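User: quick one - fold this with coenzyme A bound?
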Amino acid sequence: MPKINFLCVHKKNLRSKRLAPVLIKELIRRVHLQNIWQAVYTSLDVLPTPVTTCQYWGRMLNPKKLIDVGFSCLRDRMTMNRTVKLYKLPNAPVTPGFREMEPRDVPAVTELLRNYLCQFGVADDFDGNDVEHWLLPRKDVVHSYLVVSPETHDVTDFCSFYSTPFTILGTPNTTVECAYSYYNVVTKTSLPQLMKDALIVSKQKGFDIFYALDVMHNESFLKELIFDPGDDAHLYYYLYNYRLRCAMKPSELGLVLW
Ligand SMILES: CC(C)(COP(=O)(O)OP(=O)(O)OC[C@H]1O[C@@H](n2cnc3c(N)ncnc32)[C@H](O)[C@@H]1OP(=O)(O)O)[C@@H](O)C(=O)NCCC(=O)NCCS
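Assistant: Sure. Structure tokens for the protein plus coenzyme A:
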């Protein structure tokens, strides 16, 4: 089924004119022409009827900048110095064999992902072409890393994140660089340790904040790595023309939409 992503109506003069339903109707028409009758999509709004409701958690990488530009606030009874110290990360990844994904890794990453994702109620069904397109590192778009066992030279773990910069209104030339957790699979390293390395490399690359949804096994690292649940930061997942008997938990979802 198609994943509907990046639905967007230009914010200047075109919003609230019911153009979104026109776009959606045209998408549905084109999908039906291919004899496909289901789809998956997300929204920050509540529509009838979510299959699951996920929450974004954010982990500050550059707290001073985030607080200075008003993107985040100081926690109660915290000073800037204590906050900077709390969120400080090592300078380099700690897992032996941790490195950036390369084209030669596509088959191993595809196998890792397929073995991992088959346990979820609704999940991506990646093949090698999908992995190459969506997960091979692409500057300013997607960042993927893996762990190669120093003993066996097998790829044992994989993590990835994509990037979206935010412009801060009212403060010219200020962007907040946001990384979003994408697909992460572990077979040897613990997920919190792997994600700590993902935080370290994202900080090195100049990201200011790292977001993760509470999908798949992400709950196992959110608190330990001091992610904060956003107020009102929900993402609702929907299936088109497919009814589930009951709503799923976010942890039963093996799918991340941008
Ligand atoms: C989402 C967006 C395209 C909606 O357009 P809009 O101009 O605000 O709204 P419109 O007047 O065109 O349409 C409103 C209708 O579309 C529906 N709608 C809005 N977002 C929707 C979505 N993601 N999926 C399905 N329907 C959606 C609304 O429920 C409403 O229908 P209703 O009155 O029957 O409830 C627009 O707000 C936008 O570009 N936002 C920024 C990008 C974004 O957040 N995209 C969502 C993907 S996560």
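One thing worth noting: The pocket of coenzyme A is lined by residues 7-9, 15-21, 24, 41-45, 47 (CB under 6 Å).
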